[in-house]
Amino acid sequence: MGSSHFNSTNPANREDILGTFANATLDECREACLAARKGFEQWKKTPAPIRAGIIANFGKLIEKNKEAISQVLTREMGKPIKEARGDVQEAIDTCYFFISEGRRLYGQTVPSEMENKELYTYRRPIGVFACITAGNFPFAVPSWYFIPALVCGNTCVWKPSEDTPRLSLIFAELLYAAGVPKDVFHVVFGSGSETGANLVSLVNEGLIDKVGFTGSTEVGRKIGEICGRNLQTPCLELGGKNPLVVMPDANLDLAVNGIIWSGFGTAGQRCTSLGNLIVHKSIKEPLIKKIMDKVASIHIGNPSEENIFCGPMMSERFLKKHLENLDSLIKPHHRLITSKNGQITDQNKPERFSGNAQLGFYAHPSIVDNVNENDAIYSTETFGPLFNILSFSDLDEAIYLSNKTGYGLSSAIYTENIESSYKFRSEISAGMTSINNSTTGAEAHLPFGGNGKSGNGSRQSGIWVVDQFTKWQAVNWDVSGKLQLAQMDTSYINPSDYVVKI
What we know:
single chain; alpha/beta; Aldehyde Dehydrogenase, Chain A, domain 1; Aldehyde Dehydrogenase, Chain A, domain 2; five-stranded parallel β-sheet
């Protein structure tokens, strides 16, 4: 398949090639959608508990192969092995959560205003679901989409990230082994700009009924425009410039741990990574000192080693974009408080480094101080090991700085004050908020998603995602043997003329 090919390489060692994959053409994307539409006719008739039973098999297969999958994940996208195991475990958790949802796709029996008339509601599958995912969570995020989509009776066409095609193939093979028919789930490989664009264009041909996308706000807008013209609502999980507020009463040691994990976990390549650290003026310098001590202890290197905190960036293009951000977004009035920045090389390595600087795409953690709301770096998602520091005088200012970027994905506050916690969680615009915890982290039964530039209000995970993959049908069943017209033939009871006398 495909008119051209691309390699999947290990970002910790560019000479290590995991496989060669074909770029799917427009015709091949169309073929996959047509096959999925044909498969939908039988899959939607498969009882939901049976569909969920197949997902139970999928979860068991992932669990059985968890370590092998985690090793491939680390090798293909560079996430430290501990994080990789968590990525895979999230897919397992999602499977086991949605097993029971196959028996809970409830409708309702609704009382009618007419005699001998029954009203019902049913959840029905939407149809062909096309999805484009990113490479930073190559096993967890696809499970958020496809497990509920399949349980609800939809068929799927997936364009995974070109950074993790080997792992995507494993995902699909395990689904087939679990019992998902091959005409129900299809994978097309290639870049987002070509194969991804080809796939989404098929919305215009009526071959796709729902689109899911995890990626940049810029691309999300384009997908939203195509879907909107076709009266469809996509499921968009987009970028973030996630704020973390530290109040003067915060436990600073706890806050530092959350800051470092939020900023540099997965080399800062999470949509929920820390973007703006917003610190009260009274504690700014003591907090910075603690942060810098912690940064000095970070172990960067080969992600397959157990003690690594930060591995390489996912690919060379992500490293180049990070370097461009350092060049273009940092201005003279800023203070770059990290002493080593940019690409890690043999001549510019941190002390605790164990990777191959020549063959890997490694970057130093970077922190920019003296940022204000008028700076481009304040409102630009940088998607790398880089975050900003801003200061504030009171909580109202901190909330203002947290919301003004226009993003609304994740957020966090560190405080020991209940009133501050309550005010922050009530006034923050983000779809997700943590109190005394980091900006990152998701659980299979909690809704995940953002507002504003971070998404269109759709949510993954938990029972809420069922609304993304079903449509409501209302059934009006009249057994009276005659035409009954609601509102017109209804026998309403008129009130009497009784007047209370005092």
